[in-house]
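hi! just following up on the protien thing from before. the input was this:
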Amino acid sequence: MERSPDKTRLYEAFAASGKALSNASRLELLDLLAQGERTVDALAKGAGLNVTTASAHLQTLKAAGFVATRRDGVRIFYRLAGEDVAQLFALFRKVAERHQAEVPAARDAYLLGDGHPVDALDRAELAARSASGAVVVLDVRPREEHAAGHIPGSVSIPIDELADRIDELPTDREVVVYCRGEYCSFAYDAVRLLSSAGRRAIRLSDGMLEWRLADQPVAFGDQ
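and the predicted 3d structure came back as:
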């Protein structure tokens, strides 16, 4: 059977989207944008890239339809083009973890290092403990990410400030830590730091990306 040119064109269009995801830096940029819109400068800093490289990657993602922009004066802000992009990004990572042998080992090396597993609880258990007043919820993402959307009632202390601000957390409640998502190292680092200081701490099993996708309530700004 002769191959249809129209079918070929269709699958080439699909492949163009797939190609945009075939770069580690672009995936990291999507991870940052899942927390809220940002400028090129902020994205470059967050991903450890120079501005020129970050801009080129963002243009590739924009051409594939994964990100959109808005202008505010001389600044251009990037954001995910839709919630379906966040869903795709989250699913993409889970499929890779389930079916690519290298991913679990790389995940553990990044999140655990040479340390022991860090205990976690899920959203249902967090809701139960929060309802009883037994925990304080701690957001250790950068301050601008907390402002762009966070778990209602959570306390914002960025991970790089936590060592100097532990005394701001109550001593009579367990601390439940969360960060960007399931593969974010900030929560692991925070639990280890708090535990070493004698505090009771546990991490949320996922993070803000999964929280949003599950249609959980989100607060903004300093709420």
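The mean pLDDT is 95.
The first strand starts at residue 38 and ends at 39.
cheers
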